[in-house]
Design a protein that fits this description.
By secondary structure, the chain is mainly α. The chain is 73% helix and 0% strand.
């Protein structure tokens, strides 16, 4: 079961209420909760891969979520190593910094 997400409302609820609602209720509420179609573990791997290739700050948060969803250190290291050749070496270095902190 996916944990109820409130980050949108907590961070943007007053400033951008519709965006906050879509983040919490649609993205994390409806899409992430479709475990029968794809488990959270796999969604996390895909999400981390996508964010790593883009080099966005949300990568670290989603790596934490991935760990909570059962993604192992070995899987995370392999994902980053594999993507280093496709997304870029500097992005992989940055991702390893986050992964070391999260999986210590």
């Amino acid at each position: 079961m996916v944990k109820k997400q409130t980050a949108g409302r907590d961070n943007l609820g007053e400033f951008a209420p519709k965006f906050a609602e879509l983040n919490d209720d649609v993205l994390f509420g409806e899409v992430w909760s479709r475990a029968a179609e794809m488990p959270a573990h796999d969604r996390s791997l895909i999400t981390v891969a996508s964010l790593l290739t883009q080099g966005v700050p949300q990568l670290k948060d989603h790596m934490r979520i991935a760990k909570e969803n059962g993604v192992t250190k070995t899987e995370m290291v392999e994902l980053i190593t594999h993507l280093a050749f496709y997304a870029g070496w500097p992005k992989a270095w940055s991702a390893f910094g986050y992964a070391k902190e999260i999986y210590k």
